[in-house]
Design a protein that fits this description.
This protein has 13 helices and 14 strands. The chain is an alpha/beta fold and about 425 residues long. Bound molecules: pyridoxal-5'-phosphate. GO terms for molecular function: pyridoxal phosphate binding; transaminase activity.
């Protein structure tokens, strides 16, 4: 494995295709086989996969029904732009996602976020947007990273925050285009809108801040956001790239019963095997895409493998009144409880928080109530535990997120139970 890693690293910067590598990817693991919730590396070491390709993989590895649907696509209509499944798949999404009156497909979350912002600008004839500290909306210069800044000082000295020193980014674009404020803080949002709403086209938010530690919105916070948007003529964009389908078929918007103007879907939308994303929203906004009033382009948009993948995924998730997701949640609740119990047993501070489909653990005493609370102390211990879990055979996502899939079973829970204590004990040595 080490030799293989060196061979890859000679050509692939850092040995991985992204910069947000997992703690266990210091020496990247190359897999040779997968089944259900398990994956095997080149040494045939077996792992429980709760990393799930940054949360995308929800149907389970090597899911027979999913794979057969993809094979049908390959055999029939792989290289055309539109196919005979389009209508059915679009209708399926509108059935489950309340804000989805019209939908366009793309490949990544990043691009759909940008398209949503473009639409919001065109619709409102305003330019700026509000975003929140420690939320993540993709790999584009105008939206990635930064630290909180106030209404009084919209471009703070420490604007780059954790990304200070990152070369090649057009950082002034972020400051020109957006206001960055703390999340779960109604007062701050209201103050900003009161003063600047004439400039602001949209608020973009993760409805549960999974990227900031799986922090739930305070009661009434999202409804307040909705109300303020209506009051000030600002569009509400829910980035449901993670929460979509992981918090139920209707995503966070159904869960909280707060309906945004535009929704971005991705990751689990395509089951995990192929990249596909969607921008969904109210008809009167989405209709701006007709007749090229607002441009939306992409060579592979609506590609058939993605469409087939959505069909297979939504069928797997929705069958028998969403039985698969209920089972997934039942086993996940057991995983969460095991983590809590074992941590208590070995004397490590640990909380598990957030929705079952996209929760996270943190090595601290109390649940985080704001993404801004996700401090270095917590993060660094979380990372050590994440790496120790991998050594024991349990893979989790960065920022200690726990991503289950619908093929999770009793044996997986037992596997987890058997290995967690050792990882916690190792972590405790540095605590
Ligand atoms: N939005 C959220 C909430 C995400 O978590 C991510 C990726 O992790 C993105 C957008 C970007 O999606 P993609 O990586 O498909 O571009």
């Amino acid at each position: 494995m080490a030799e293989y890693n060196l061979r890859v690293k000679k050509i692939l910067p850092g040995g991985v295709h992204y910069n947000f590598n997992m703690p266990w990817e210091e020496t990247p693991i190359h897999f040779i086989n997968t089944k259900n919730s398990r994956v095997w590396d080149m040494n045939n070491k077996e792992y429980l996969d709760l990393y799930a390709r940054f949360g995308a993989m929800i149907v389970g590895h090597n899911n027979h029904e999913y794979n057969e649907t993809l094979k049908e696509c390959i055999d029939r209509v792989l290289s055309v732009s539109h196919c005979d499944l389009d209508a059915e798949v679009l209708e399926l999404i509108t059935k489950f996602v309340p804000s989805a009156e019209m939908i366009r497909f793309g490949l990544s979350g990043t691009e759909m976020v940008q398209n949503a912002l473009r639409l919001a600008r065109a619709y409102t004839h305003k330019n700026k947007f509000i975003r929140f500290e420690n939320h993540y909306h993709g790999n584009a210069d105008n939206i990635m990273g930064g630290k909180q800044h106030s209404v009084e000082t919209p471009i703070p000295e420490d604007f780059l925050g954790d990304l200070k020193g990152t070369l090649g980014r057009a950082d002034d674009i972020m400051a020109q285009q957006s206001y960055l404020i703390p999340w779960n803080d109604e007062e701050c949002l209201e103050k900003l809108l009161k003063e600047k709403s004439s400039e602001i086209a949209a608020i973009i938010t993760e409805p549960v801040c999974v990227n900031g530690g799986s922090v739930m919105p305070k009661e009434g916070y999202l409804s307040k956001m909705r109300q303020l948007c209506d009051q000030y003529g600002v569009l509400l964009i829910f980035d449901e790239i993670i929460t979509g389908f992981r918090m139920g078929l209707g995503g966070a918007q159904s869960y909280f019963n707060v309906i945004p103007d535009l929704t971005i879907l991705g990751k689990a939308l395509g089951g995990g095997g192929v990249p596909v994303s969607a921008l969904a929203g109210k008809k009167e906004i989405m209709e701006l895409l007709i007749e090229k009033k607002v441009i939306h382009a992409g060579t592979f948009n609506g590609y058939t493998l993605g469409t087939f993948a959505i069909k297979a995924t939504l069928e797997c998730l929705s069958r028998n009144d969403g039985e698969a997701l209920k089972t997934m949640n039942t086993y996940t609740a057991q995983l969460h409880q095991i983590l809590r119990d074992k941590a208590k047993k070995v004397g490590m501070p640990l909380v598990v928080q957030g929705p079952l489909g996209c929760g996270a653990y943190h090595c601290c005493e109390k649940e985080l109530t704001s993404p801004s609370d996700y401090t270095f102390d917590i993060t660094s211990l979380d990372i050590i535990l994440n790496a120790e879990l991998a050594k024991q055979g349990v893979l989790m996502s960065s920022l200690s997120r726990i991503y289950p899939n619908i093929l999770l079973n009793k044996e997986d829970v037992e596997w987890f139970d058997y290995r967690v204590e050792k990882a916690l004990l190792e972590t405790k040595k540095v605590y």
